[in-house]
Amino acid sequence: MDHLACLTPADLQANPAPDLSAFRWRLLAQGDSWFSFTAAQMNAHANLLEELVFRDKALAVNCAGQSNALSHMVDLESAPEFVRLLSADDAPVWDGILLSVGGNDLVKAAQTPAHLPDGEPVALHLRLLRRQTEWGPPSAGVARYFSEPGWATYADYLSANLRHLLSLRDQGRSAGKPVFMHSYAVPMPRPAGAEDASGPWLYPALKAYAIPAADWAAVSRLMVYHLAQLLKRLAADQQLYPGLHVFDSTAVPLALAAPGSSGNSGDWFNEIHLNHSGCFKIARAWSEHIEGVLNGNTGGKKKA
């Protein structure tokens, strides 16, 4: 098994240019902080791409590599290298596209406050959590805290952005090639921010909404499972989302971080980022999924 080799878009402009034909699988990658190769990210925690392994030599040109990680799906519009390498007439032909997107959007939606700075309430369809006066009955479990109207807004946003991304793929030379996404593992809301002073992310949001601490883990699970089910549902609709393949990271057993911990714990470096052991576990399983699809797309035959 060989680790995925990673290049940046700038590496493609080197003289001499790298020989992409030396690899059986040539992939284009874009994503959030789970993919980012910025120095700050690499010094802080692990990278999922680093842990991908394949039976045959595989290469990824990672557009999240030396730039800021995506904070929103719509940031694809401000990722010119990725858009060019995905859709330009002179771009390489990719065997597949690797995506790590949607997680930052989910966190941002969960962080939406109940009120604006001027005290004006934020409409329920624009946030994922409910104020105490809006909680459902205890019989609903942790779903009583969750805004289904807000989830519908988020789901519509993510779905539309993915359709747009697939249309960009089909404008270029890699039309119809598989797009591989992962869902996200379930984080433990806790006071564990990043070394750059960002975060924690879910912990202050759940506190602000006065959700009981005993329910934090279950609320986190509810939101992440909603995202996983949404992505799998989109991938099942091959008419609207042709070539989309989703790996369910929630099915990979991970060691949860200890509640209340403020640093590296279990398979987590901080509240929402995996450490090396966490990345290893998810990447090994995702690698098998990716390679299985790639081999299926070529009938299991070596490319000439």
From TrEMBL:
Protein name from the UniProt record: SGNH hydrolase-type esterase domain-containing protein
Organism name: Roseateles flavus
